[in-house]
């Protein structure tokens, strides 16, 4: 009986299967076209998988998307793994996921190599000057979107403020803050006000006593462990996990600086694949410090995305059950409220890097960042993210060749 069930899970019905050739070329093409973050990627997948190829129906696509929202990791990648599993079994899921990741690995590793070897040239410095305020604008635009969805009511706002204070001022660990927010939201919904107050106090006191330090003997081991944890606890999308990447890569390990962090964010927006792929760029720089840059990029890729495969493939059979669990949904609502506070906390040091490139406020940079933020948040005709980022890079290149109108050279 167990063997028959396992066989059924491994191989979808013949009517649902597609050829390996079709799976290979579709997901390879999807990986190279997957620009613009999860919204654009998921829209592209819906167009192809539901409307054109009719691989899955509208209802199943929505349920699969809700299923992916409940799991840690990038939703678009997990959706690709799920559809690959439906059309080709476990091997189809693995193939779909690997092909979806591959373009980001190639492009971000190549950009990291250029960044390391040519990042001090005037032309590259100019492009990065234009990228940084736009990257910050993308982060703030995401913060607005998440806030609108998550902060409905007084208590979610209180959670967001508590998360900001805990992470920015008290320097509490990222994961403990988010878990506390998730548990507190459940308590708020299910128990009385006195118990809620007690739970709030207990959770944040426990977080305050926790020790977030970690030690490892070798850089490669550090990279592997760190990015596996990032992939394992990346609830809430790529922007939600940026505070965790910064906490580990900048504050704890010292692999990169805040300047390099915002460069990674901007460059990640110009490459295909999930935005969380900026971890590949960070891994390259982390490995470069120990003279193993390509090993760092490869290890960060493997360990960053491995949890998505480990969660999606075994759990795909239980999709309907998982998506109906109210406790899990409440936990994730609390986590999302905490994410708002954490994203705001990392916006402050990144804003200093973007808007003060020479130690004082550069008003042209501020105007560029505000223009990008307005264009992506409030303008009726939303611009493509990649176009906005590249537009900032073009302005930066102009500043490198004609610094006069821009307030002088970056120096």
Would you summarize the structure shown here?
The protein is mostly helical. It has helices at residues 2-10, 20-33, 37-52, 58-69, 75-118, 122-150, 154-169, 174-190, 193-209, 219-232, 238-252, 258-269, 278-288, 293-315, 319-323, 326-355, 363-377, 385-401.
Word description of this protein:
By secondary structure, the protein is mainly α. The protein folds into two domains: about 10-100; about 105-405, no CATH class. The protein is about 75% helix and about 0% strand. Helix 12 (about 260-270) crosses helix 16 and helix 13 (about 280-290) packs antiparallel against helix 14. The radius of gyration is 22 Å and the shape is globular. Mean pLDDT is about 80; it is low at about 1-10, about 195-200 and about 205-215.
Key attributes of the depicted protein:
77% helix; mainly alpha; 411 residues; single chain; 2 domains; 18 helices
- Helix count? 18
Strand count: 0
Structural class: mainly alpha
Mean pLDDT: 80
Radius of gyration: 22 Å
Query: Please, how many domains?
Result: 2
Q: SSE order in H/E notation? A: HHHHHHHHHHHHHHHHHH
Portion in beta strands: under 5%
Largest sheet: none
Low-confidence stretches: 1-12, 193-202, 204-215
Give the terminus-to-terminus CA distance.
71 Å
Envelope shape: globular
Tell me the helix content.
Answer: over 70%
């Amino acid at each position: 009986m167990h063997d028959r069930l396992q066989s059924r899970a491994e191989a979808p019905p013949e009517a649902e299967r597609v050829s390996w050739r079709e799976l290979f070329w579709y997901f390879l093409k999807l990986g190279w076209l997957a620009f613009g973050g999860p919204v654009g990627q998921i829209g592209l997948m819906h167009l192809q998988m539901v409307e054109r190829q009719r691989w899955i129906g509208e209802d199943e696509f929505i349920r699969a998307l809700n299923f992916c929202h409940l799991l840690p990791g990038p939703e678009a990648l997990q959706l690709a793994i799920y559809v690959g599993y439906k059309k080709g079994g476990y091997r189809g899921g693995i193939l779909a996921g690997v092909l979806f990741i591959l373009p980001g690995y190639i492009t971000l590793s190549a950009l990291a190599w250029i960044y390391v070897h040519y990042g001090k040239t005037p032309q590259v410095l100019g492009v990065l000057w234009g990228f940084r305020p736009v990257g910050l604008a993308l982060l703030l635009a995401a913060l607005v979107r998440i806030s609108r969805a998550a902060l409905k009511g007084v208590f979610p706002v209180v959670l967001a403020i508590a998360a900001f204070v805990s992470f920015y001022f008290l320097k509490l660990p990222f994961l403990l803050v988010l878990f506390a927010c998730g548990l507190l939201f459940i308590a708020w919904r299910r128990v009385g006000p006195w118990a809620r107050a007690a739970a709030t106090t207990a959770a944040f006191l426990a977080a305050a006593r926790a020790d977030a330090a970690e030690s490892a003997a070798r850089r490669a081991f550090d990279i592997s462990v760190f990015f596996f944890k990032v992939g394992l606890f990346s609830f809430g999308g790529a922007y939600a996990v940026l505070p965790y990447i910064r906490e580990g890569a900048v504050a704890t390990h010292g692999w990169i600086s805040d300047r390099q962090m915002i460069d990674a964010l901007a460059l990640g927006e110009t490459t295909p694949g999930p935005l969380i792929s900026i971890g590949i760029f960070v891994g390259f720089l982390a490995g470069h410090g120990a003279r193993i840059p390509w090993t760092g990029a490869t290890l960060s890729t493997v360990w960053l995305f491995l949890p998505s495969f480990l969660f999606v493939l075994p759990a795909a059979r239980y999709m309907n059950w998982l998506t109906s669990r109210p406790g899990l949904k409440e936990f994730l609502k609390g986590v999302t409220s905490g994410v708002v506070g954490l994203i705001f906390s990392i916006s402050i040091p990144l804003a200093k890097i973007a808007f003060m490139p020479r130690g004082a406020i550069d008003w042209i940079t501020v105007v560029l960042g505000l223009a990008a933020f307005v264009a992506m948040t409030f303008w009726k005709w939303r611009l493509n993210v990649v176009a906005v980022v590249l537009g900032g890079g073009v302005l930066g290149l102009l500043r490198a060749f004609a610094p006069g109108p821009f307030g002088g050279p970056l120096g």
